[in-house]
Write a structure and sequence with these properties.
Blueprint lengths: L1 H17 L7 H33 L11 H4 L1 H4 L8 H15 L3 E2 L8 H4 L34 H13 L4 E10 L11 E11 L4 H16 L5 E5 L5 E10 L11 E10 L1 H6 L8 E8 H9 L5 H5 L2 H4 L3
Parallel strand pairs: 1-2
Antiparallel strand pairs: 2-3, 3-7, 4-5, 5-6, 6-7
Bound molecules: 3,4-dihydroxyphenylalanine.
């Protein structure tokens, strides 16, 4: 910068020289002018170079194509803070990819929904006490952070119903985050994850549903499992079942130790009808279950609260 200032004052002095041309005898003015011009060109060139090198210092050239690993570039800052995928996300991916291998499409759930999708479209009668069973949160505007992924069933049926006309089946799973106004303890969280399954075709039946579910759980736990069902009640299925698996020995289970993993059943005709699907021609089954419980069993975790706690000691174990 200093050099640039010096050059500027040199240039100023030189410009003043030009005024003296009148004092120079006429025959020497040409030579005088050429000399001044040459000096001026030299000074201007030096100024350009000085400006360029000043810029070089100010702007560190950035090579956006250079490979960069932040953890390597700034080890003191980042090496101990390297993040990782949350275990529930990793497991949710595994769950979804097992269903994908079985031919299911995926539609993600949402985090805010309305009374219609959460209840009406699922055949919950108005004022029916079953609505209370879902311990729903509500916003001041009356919207609902969904309490189950079934809130997506109506959308799935509508989005895919053209497949039925083409002679294909609807086969979709819906992973999503759900919310319930529950007292939190080691086995209950206000925020957790579910995965819903919806299947519709001309001639599907409950046996196929149980086959799909068994296949899913055996793939997820990587072993053969004993399964069992017991009657359940959901307004959107008829009949409704609860699906249980015998807790695997290697996961600390004893014989006859059955765990309820999800709710399921044949989709109620009213649910199909509301989505514009003729229940006299098409039939469907659906299921929905918690992901947190699935993962806790797989890893022998005792406290569901760890998942949403942000507890780094817990998260670092995965
Ligand atoms: N949504 C139910 C719950 O959260 C679970 C469920 C039961 C989903 C039956 C279904 C179903 O799709 O058919 O308790």
């Amino acid at each position: 910068m200093e050099e640039l200032e010096e050059l500027k004052s040199e240039l100023k002095k030189l410009n003043a020289e030009y005024a003296k041309i009148r004092e120079v005898p006429v025959e020497k003015r040409g030579e005088f002018g050429r000399e001044l011009n040459a000096k001026k060109t030299a000074i201007l060139e030096k100024m350009r170079q000085a400006e360029e090198s000043a810029l070089d210092v100010a702007v560190v050239p950035l090579d956006i194509s250079a490979p960069c690993n932040v953890n390597e570039a700034l080890p003191e800052l980042y090496s101990t803070l390297q993040g990782s995928a949350h275990p529930l996300m990793t497991e949710l991916d595994r769950v979804v990819s097992i269903y994908q291998m079985m031919g299911f499409d995926v539609m993600e759930s949402r985090q805010l929904d309305d009374e219609f999708h959460m209840f009406d479209s699922l055949n919950f009668a108005k004022e029916h006490p079953a609505r209370d069973g879902y311990d729903t949160f509500r916003t001041e505007e009356g919207l609902i952070p969904p309490a189950h992924t079934s809130t997506m069933q109506h959308r799935v049926l509508k989005a895919y119903r053209d497949k039925l006309v083409r002679g294909e089946e609807i086969a979709v799973v819906v992973p999503g985050r759900v919310y319930r106004n529950e007292d939190v303890d080691a086995t209950h969280e206000h925020t957790f994850y579910q995965c819903e399954g919806v299947y519709v075709s001309r001639d599907c039946n409950m046996g196929q549903m149980l086959g799909i579910l068994r296949e899913f759980f055996e793939k997820y736990y990587e072993q053969k499992l004993n399964i069992r069902t017991q009657p359940g009640y959901f307004p959107f299925t008829e009949p409704s079942l609860e699906f249980l698996i015998e807790k695997p020995k290697m996961l600390g289970g004893k014989k006859g130790d059955y765990l309820e993993m999800l709710g399921c059943g044949m989709i109620h005709p009213n649910v199909l009808k509301m989505a514009g699907i003729d229940p006299t021609t098409y039939h469907g089954f659906a299921w929905g279950g918690g992901i947190d419980r699935l993962v806790m069993l797989r890893y022998g975790l005792k406290d569901v609260r760890n998942f949403e706690s942000g507890n780094l000691n817990f998260l670092k174990e995965f």
